[in-house]
Amino acid sequence: MEKFEKNNDAIRKEHTPGEIIIAARKKKRMSQEQLSLECDVSAIQIGRIERNCVRPKIETIKKLEETLDVQLLTVFLEYWQLLDSGEKKLDRVKLLFCSFEYEISELGLNAEEVEFVLQNALSAAKRKKNKCGF
Known about the structure:
The protein is mostly helical. It has two domains: 9-85, Orthogonal Bundle (434 Repressor (Amino-terminal Domain)); 89-132. 72% of the residues lie in helices and 0% in strands. It contains nine helices and no strands. The relative contact order is 0.11. Mean pLDDT is 79; it is low at 2-12 and 130-134.
């Protein structure tokens, strides 16, 4: 299993988990569809993981590790820690919007409902600026 050593900050800080997965998948000459079948995860979910739009379950990460022969759990945990600490604010916002977009499609919200939710979120963020970290 290929490991990204703890002292290799360049890999950890410059490459997202999704980028590492894409590189490992391409190295094995696998499509997203093939990877999804091997890991028993939908191809849509593989795409979301590769775009860093979701926080996959530990079981999914382990399946990816086994299939791609790459150690990923530590990479994901460190990336999430950076997101949560505010070091990668733009990536965190991207993750939030991807999650929000998914929820909108699942709930079937119309444009007025989405606008209402966004306006309330923006108002709340302005009131609690310090708590949000923005």
